[in-house]
Amino acid sequence: GFNMSNKKNNKINEKPEAESGAPSSEPSLGEVVLEKEEYEKLLGDLEKASRSMDDMKRLQADFDNARKRLEKDRIEYIKCAKEDVIAELLGIVDNFRRADEAALKTKDFNLLHQGVTMILKEIKSILEKNAVLEIPSLGETFDPLKHEAIEYEIRDDLPDNTIVEELQKGYSMNGKIIRHAVVKVSKVSDKGEYKE
């Protein structure tokens, strides 16, 4: 009696065996059985993935360094470009000083006027060299992207919103508006009507 029940208890705790009496080759829950080749291939894939991750980290670091270098170069370029423009403006300041001194000595208005006209030409040349252009206004149709209208004038001989006077020049740089032209525009009266 006692020994039999003990054997029964032992059988319950043992793993099931195959009919031949050998232990079962079935994997238990949570285990995966792989062929040797499959296992070695997975190890190789893992090594490749690890190398790829290292390569990616290296590329990211190279990219970050290149970005920082480009930003530094850009700041340096802007600084140098500003210095070049300032150097050109200093030449204009010198010319203004000479024109002022000459006008004080000679009291010659025509000489002063010629000097100022020359200096304006020089300034315009520097602006054009730096891709700064005047925005056409007089006679143009008002365009809120380029112009700022602060006055209007009743004109029955022109279509509505024709620019009749430029109060302050506008400028673009590399195609981008950096200052709107301040203008006066036409407005057809209630009585009159523009006819072509």
Describe the structure.
The structure is a single chain. This protein is 53% helix and 16% strand. It contains 3 helices and 6 strands. The longest helix has 71 residues, at 36-106. The chain is elongated, with a radius of gyration of 43 Å.
Helix-strand category = alpha+beta
What would the average pLDDT be, to the nearest integer? 83
Number of strands: 6
> Spans with pLDDT under 50 lasting ≥5 residues?
1-21
Distance between the termini: 127 Å
Quaternary structure of the protein:
single chain
Provide the gyration radius in Å: 43 Å
Sheet bearing the most strands, described?
3 strands, antiparallel
**N-to-C SSE series?**
HHHEEEEEE
How much of the sequence lies in strands comes to 15-25%
Helix content: 40-55%
General shape: elongated
What is the topology, as strand order, of the major beta sheet?
1-4-5
What is the number of helices?
Answer: 3
